[in-house]
Amino acid sequence: MSVVPAEVLPGGALAVEETDRDAAELGPRARMWPALVAVYRAQLSRARVARIPLLFVATFQSVGIMVLMRGVVDGGAEAQAVVAGSAVLVVAFVALNLLAQYFGQLRASGGLDHYATLPVPPAAVVLGAAGAYASFTVPGTVVTALFGCVLFGLPMAHLWVLVAVIPLAGAALAGLGAAFGLLAPRPELATVLGQLGMSAALLLGVLPADRMPEGVRFLRDLLPSTYGVEAFARTFGPHPDWAFVLGDLAVCGAVGVVSLGVATWAYRRAAVR
Length: 273
Description:
The protein is mainly α. 78% of the residues lie in helices and 0% in strands. The chain has 11 helices and no strands.
């Protein structure tokens, strides 16, 4: 009796290939934090040249709105709302509008297939892209806030609160923008949804809440960026109530976690189709 290796049997090669394939499929996936950093750096380097001109547009838009409102609003709580809303509007323009367009085009062009073949967690793709786009809002938001303080004569002592407002409001709006782009059946619809969201942030965030009807105020409370606007506006007072500021920031952060979670689910849903 002779002993024949399993590899030379008719089904031996197939069995070895299936074993190797299973081993490859069961290979370790990239860890969350290194994958997130890699996606963030890649998105930042790719979008830097194309998005900087759009950032100037977003900043110029917010500055122009404050100049127009200067003829209507003299000061006080209304001026605080205008400056805070205009600053957060820069975040909305980039993190909501542009991110919806990006993911809509990525889905339509088949770009999600590239990420689906990589051993990268879906959350890392969404968070990395959202973080890269939100990073572009920092200079424009700071410039808008400084210009608004000078224009309306508001104090600048607590502008450091933007360190918390920008990432928290950016997370909430970026998650919403990514969900728009990933769930929209066509990229044109994703663009429309992103622009409608930015328009809502403009109308409901910049205009003083005291002049809005009750129904419009309710819609304003549903907008994620509202709580970032409220937190920033409260810091312009002579004695800010930091408990309310932290409460608004906490709500904004909670909405950001939920919206990014929805965007991650939408990415998984779009990637497997």
